[in-house]
Amino acid sequence: EELDLALLFEDVQAILNPLYEENNGKITIPIEDEFYIYGDYNRLKQVLVNIIKNSLEAKNKSTINVNIRIKKIKNSYKITITDNGRGMTKNELLHIHEMFYTTKQNGSGIGVPFNKEIINLHKGNISYKSQKNKGTMVTIILPI
Predict the structure, then answer these.
(1) Those residues with Cβ within 8 angstroms of residue 60's Cβ, 6 or more apart along the chain or in another chain
(2) For residue range 97-137, what is the model confidence (pLDDT) as tens digits?
(3) What is the DSSP string of 75-126?
(4) What is the mean pLDDT of the chain?
(5) Strand order of the sheet with strand 135-143?
(6) β-strands 25-28, 64-73 pairing
(7) Rounded to the nearest 5 degrees, what angle is found at the Cα of 41, between the Cα atoms of 38 and 43?
(8) Residue 47 DSSP SS3
(9) Does the CA dihedral 122-57-67-9 come out positive or negative?
(10) Does residue 39 carry a pLDDT above 70?
(11) What pLDDT score was predicted for residue 25?
């Protein structure tokens, strides 16, 4: 179905804001335009909730900040989700797409592979960049 990414992010923000506020966190989504794509609203919402919730779980400071940007690039939208969490080592980053691999004490290791599968089904791409003790940036490219 056709969906507006801005509304999707507003929905995700409404779901996660109470959890972030409890943890002295902040989600910033400076979206002023409508960004329409074709996709599965609920599956994409699950992906975004997973990613943003992972940021909160990776907090290593008294506050966690997540910044989200959407930019149109040719026939796609580039979504970047950046946090100031504990980040990952190069070795951890190499393994995050493996099923059941986790660095979290209570993690299942299925979130990142699930995210990748859903984005691939939308003919998109998802990638991760991270620096230990600096934070992580997740980039999602979705076709229009």
Answers:
(1) 85, 86, 133
(2) 777 666 666 766 678 889 999 999 999 999 999 999 899 99
(3) TEEEEEEEE-S----HHHHHHTTSTT---STT--S-HHHHHHHHHHHTT-EE
(4) 88
(5) 25-28, 64-73, 76-83, 135-143, 125-131
(6) parallel
(7) 110
(8) helix
(9) positive
(10) yes
(11) 84
Residue-wise pLDDT for 51-80, tens only, equals 998 888 877 767 788 999 999 999 999 999
**The amino acid at 40:** D
Taking residue 31's Cβ as centre, other Cβ atoms within 10 Å add up to 17
Alpha-carbon distances, residue 83 vs 3, 9, 56, 69 (angstroms):
25, 16, 9, 12
Q: Give the tokens for residue 144.
A: 């229009």
With the CA atoms of 90, 51, 68 and 123 taken in that order, what torsion angle do they form, in degrees rounded to the nearest 10? 90
- Residue 77 has a pLDDT of 94
* Whole-number Cα distances in Å, 113 to 63, 98, 120, 124, 126: 27, 7, 10, 14, 10
